[in-house]
Specification:
The chain is mostly helical. The chain folds into two domains: 58 residues, Homeodomain-like (Arc Repressor Mutant, subunit A, Orthogonal Bundle); 159 residues, Orthogonal Bundle (Tetracycline Repressor, domain 2), CATH 1.10.357. It is built from 13 helices and no strands. The longest helix has 29 residues. The chain is globular, with a radius of gyration of 19 Å. The protein starts with a helix and ends in a 16-residue tail after the last helix. It comes from Salibacterium qingdaonense. GO terms for molecular function: DNA binding. This is Transcriptional regulator, TetR family.
Length: 235
Amino acid sequence: MAAADEKKKIQNARMWRYFLNAAADLIEEKGMSNIKIREIADRAGYTSSTVYNYFQNLSHLKFFAAMRYTTAYFQDLPNYMKKGENTIDEWLYGWECFCRHSFQYLEVYSLLYIENLGVIPEKMNQMYYEVYANELINLSEEVQSIITHHNIATRSTLFIQKTIEEGFIDEADLDYIANLTMLIWTGMMTNLLNLRKNVTKEEAAKNTMHYISRSIIDVVIPEKKHLITYEYGRG
């Protein structure tokens, strides 16, 4: 029975790759909002009905295809975080990495972290990494703990929990700053998608980090502020 289950798991993973590769190619060619199930099935060499054997609907398929775009972000994340001198610095550099990547692919990251998918994204995130567990190889446990939680505020809360012990942030401010930073990013992303802001992607990342870094530093205990060395764009 175990062998049969393992065989089915491998087969499912193979089919996922066919469809997600096809969807990713079409996203590059036509944009996230312009692809259809039939086109994805045709590109993968299967029928539309076969797609529905593996994915509930187009939104779910788009979500899993969009996750492929996060690979570059996850690979860059450790390099950004190691610039930091302390947990607050590391968090700020982690945010900068996320902003730089997310504003490069507005539709993709909006789908992943803002849009209503009809299901809890955490469950879909878990399903993705069950199939693509290899994407977590060579990532530190700290980074894995961040990316395997889909909710941005939850990621932040888990990561900065230790800042309480380090004396950087009061426990009462933890959820506040985790949620505030997420809302700042969401607001800028929504403004760009709705053409409310006429800025370049680099300007969007820089402006967002300006608000995020100021908000974070505001809740750092005064005696610790001088220890924050974060600088946007540091090589």
